[in-house]
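Q: Structure tokens for this one, please.
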Amino acid sequence: MHPARSTALARLRARRHLKHARPGELLWLFDLDNTLHDCSKGIFRAIDGAMAQAVASTLQLPMDQANKVRKDYWRRYGATVIGMVRHHGVNPHRFLAMSHDFNVPELVHAETGLFQSLNRLPGRKVLLTNAPLDYARQVLETLKIQHLFEGVWAIDHMHLQGTMKPKPSLALMRQIRAQLGMPAGQIILVEDTLRNLKAARHAGMRTVHMYHPATPFSAAHKGRNLYVNLRVNSVRELAARAHAMNTRGTAGRA
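A: Here is the predicted structure, written as tokens:
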């Protein structure tokens, strides 16, 4: 990332970058895991194992119990760290560091031509991930696509009134919309997790479902939901079908 965007991939100061956005110009909010790269080949196993180990170490639990806690908090709050903070008062930054303590670059796998496909998409691009900033930075740099993104909202930055509010928080989506300072219909969330897309749609944004069979609960949602504007299987397909997302900011479906 260019030095002017400080601390490699620091939080985007959206209004400064986007206040001169042209009428109808799109802004793509991209999820990271199972959207820009394939986590089924090893990263999810590494994250799940490290997360369970972090829970076990923090709460002094056996691994099988820790794994149940990990899954329960993820289902209830959208991120295990939320439950750990809310119910056990853990330091979120320390916990996130523990739960992502593995060799990230060697486990990153992505579709061929990812850079070219992203570069074809008209408009600006920002990363929006429930992952910690350091992990997100490592993935983007390994994929060599960091220069295509104006900035990152990582879970480190998802705080509202002193409380961590990651996706699928509707309050987070509304905050993002307000900070971007542009019509919600010009903002498109590209994401593999349907509940996150639903929140974005409720906030007035448009949505692209990046279908991935390894995403939790995806098998139960093979069709296209009412809150999904476009469903694709790859970034390459998204680039080829980007015309389907009406640049006037309407909520057309394709």
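A few notes: The longest strand covers residues 124-128. The chain has a mean pLDDT of 87.
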